[in-house]
Write a structure and sequence with these properties.
With about 375 residues, the chain is mainly alpha-helical. The chain has twelve helices and no strands. Helix 2 runs antiparallel to helix 3 and helix 2 packs antiparallel against helix 11. The radius of gyration is 28 Å and the shape is elongated.
Length: about 375
């Protein structure tokens, strides 16, 4: 018995489509689980642990909330669309439009927030004193509110019919989104170019930060300097390194104030054995300038990896949008379009993984908040750098 070639073709085509749908559903289920569980657990750790109530982690908390919202609200509709086989949207045009606006809102918010983070990272490295005194949790909260406001201003106009919008994207991308056509027939080029400009500006700030670190690491020609002056082991003058002055500020110096430190308040002295033991148990803070600087660099490395992942995962989709907008009649292969769309979905669950990989402090705090699922808890003992 021989089968007709068209029947075999239809059979293999149906089997391939079913296998592709199964792979899509499995990947979406994994992304949703990682996005909701990872971002939720990290958000709980950031809220419960008082030691993480710092300026840099305000941004991380907001990123986790936004990614968890996207994983819990937007991606299940995509899974339902894949399960239906890409048929027409059954929930009405208004819900499709609201879902598209929410996706665009979260996308713009992530890009704008990473731009704010890059600026604060530059201040923490290049202007550490200004950052330590002026940039606090309230300032970071204000930046978060500004990012939400700007992203809402960019994403909300389609709700009121201000821009061209269509839901036919559901059939190609299996999600509700803005329609991307030639620039003469659509209003989305501004969205794409704005997002590309924000991502480019973010990386430009990080490049400037790297240039600053590199310039301050370069070896300078040796220059003879006079010997440092000291009356009580707090060296000052042209030949001083600054560490002795830091020790004096921390409370280790005795005698009169060095001339270069006049007006600087000295911490309570704890040079004697009794006062030293009481200060260690009482939690008196020493001068941790070098340690804090290294911590800021580690946090900056973590945020840059988040920014780099945002660029890598969103670049293919932005490229397809640009091709549709600026090349009239251009056809994007469906395989490439699907891969690009799914890469944007992956971005919703990648930030918690990057945070735990590049930030040891977060790993320890998360283990302390959830000891039952991360093994035994490592004791956190205070340490002092002099």
């Amino acid at each position: 018995m021989r089968c007709h070639p068209s029947a075999l073709h239809n059979y293999y085509g149906t089997t391939a489509a079913a296998a592709a749908a199964a792979v899509k559903l499995a990947s979406l289920a994994l992304i949703i689980c990682v996005g909701v569980a990872g971002n939720g657990a990290l958000s709980v750790a950031l809220l419960r642990d008082a030691s993480l109530h710092k300026a840099p982690y305000v941004f991380l908390l907001d990123l986790c909330v936004a990614d968890a919202l996207r994983s819990a609200v937007c991606l299940p509709f995509v899974a339902a669309s894949v399960h239906r086989g890409g048929s027409a949207w059954p929930h009405g045009a208004l819900r499709c439009r609201l879902l598209a606006v929410l996706s665009a809102l979260l996308c713009f918010h992530g890009a704008l927030l990473l731009l704010c983070v890059s600026v604060t990272r530059y201040l923490a490295i290049a202007h550490h004193r200004f950052y330590a005194t002026r940039v606090n949790a309230c300032v970071c909260g204000a930046l978060v509110c500004a990012a939400w406001t700007l992203s809402a201003a960019a994403a909300l106009p389609p709700v009121f019919g201000a821009y061209a919008f269509a839901r036919e994207e559901e059939e190609e991308e299996e999600q509700c989104g803005f329609e991307h056509r030639h620039l003469r027939a659509n209003d989305t080029p501004g969205f794409v170019l704005t997002l590309a400009a924000v991502v480019s500006a973010t990386h430009a700030v990080y490049v400037k930060t790297l240039c600053f670190v590199y310039d301050h690491r370069k070896m300078k020609p040796a220059q003879p300097v006079p010997a440092a002056v000291s009356q009580n082991w707090t060296f000052h003058g042209p030949g001083a390194s600054g560490q002795a002055a830091a020790n004096w500020i921390a409370g280790f110096g005795r005698g009169p104030t060095p001339p270069t430190l006049v007006g600087v308040r000295q911490a309570a002295s704890s040079s004697s054995s009794s006062s030293s033991s009481s200060s260690h148990h009482g939690g008196a803070r020493r001068l941790l300038v070098l340690d804090e600087f290294k911590m800021e660099k580690r946090i900056g490395r973590m945020y840059y990896m988040m920014t780099l992942s945002f660029l890598v995962l969103w670049a293919p989709y932005l490229a397809t949008c640009c091709v549709r907008i600026f090349v009239k009649g251009a056809a994007v292969p469906q395989v490439y379009l699907t891969a690009a769309v799914w890469m944007t979905f992956v971005q919703a669950g990648v930030n918690p993984i990057i945070s735990l990989v590049f930030n040891k402090e977060l790993r320890l705090r998360l283990r302390a908040c959830f000891p039952w699922c991360l093994g035994t808890q490592t004791p956190m003992e205070p340490y002092y750098v002099i």
